[in-house]
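Known limitations

Structure tokens in this collection are predictions and should be treated as such. Users comparing against experimental data should check residue numbering before alignment. To illustrate the layout, the record for Integral membrane protein is reproduced below. The input appears on top and the generated tokens appear beneath it.
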Amino acid sequence: MKEAFKALANRPEPLFVIGYMLCPLLALICAGLGLWMILTGQKVGGLIVLLVVTQAFTFSALWAIARRRRLLEAGDGGPHA
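Generated tokens:
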């Protein structure tokens, strides 16, 4: 599992999907869920979803974008670099 994650984190294509598509979409869904929970009366759970889960997906997206940028600048980006 650890080797698979290292291989995934060293290629710009999967990082593009994670950073620009998957994590922002999950953050948006979690933000909507947290807001819905707050509006329906589940304030503590909604705040946890908004402040913890949504931020985790946001920072994961920022990490993937920064990692992809470093890989492309280093010249290890494959045919597109």
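For this record: Residues 20 and 61 are 7 Å apart (CA to CA). The chain has one domain: 15-72. Please report discrepancies through the issue tracker.
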